[in-house]
Amino acid sequence: MARDTHRVMPHKDGGWQVKRDGDQKASHRTDTKAEAEKLARPISQHQQTELQIHGKDGAIQRSDSHGHDPRSSKG
After folding, report:
1. In the chain, helix, strand, coil percent, each to 5?
2. Alpha helices, H only, the chain
3. Are 66 and 44 contacting, i.e. CB atoms less than 8 angstroms apart?
4. Entry's InterPro entries (predicted)?
């Protein structure tokens, strides 16, 4: 089953955006990546979604599960 995901990623017009998969528009737009991540983390925690942080090149740099983590191993 696919996880619901929020992403911090570059905005096409400059700056950074917080966007949930499937949404047409970003919920937040900031000047810096740090600001976008600071806004995205509590949203992802509250909505129990995956949070993926992207780099300027669009590649995923890190990912955090908030809520229903499907991983079954301990650690």
Report:
1. 20, 35, 45
2. 33-47
3. yes
4. DUF2188
Task: Using the structure block, give the residue that is written with the tokens 């096409």.
Answer: 12
- Retrieve residue 20's tokens: 């949930």
Q: Residue type for 6, please? A: H
Taking only the tens place, the pLDDT of each residue in 36-52 is: 999 999 999 999 999 99
Helix (H) or strand (E) holding 26: none
Residue 2 carries which side chain, given as an amino acid letter? A
Contact by Cβ (8 Å): 3, 49 = yes
**Domain residues of the chain, as ranges?**
5-61
What string of H, E and C letters represents the secondary structure of the chain? CCCCEEEEEECCCCCEEEEECCCCCCCEEECCHHHHHHHHHHHHHHHCCEEEEECCCCCEEEEEECCCCCCCCCC
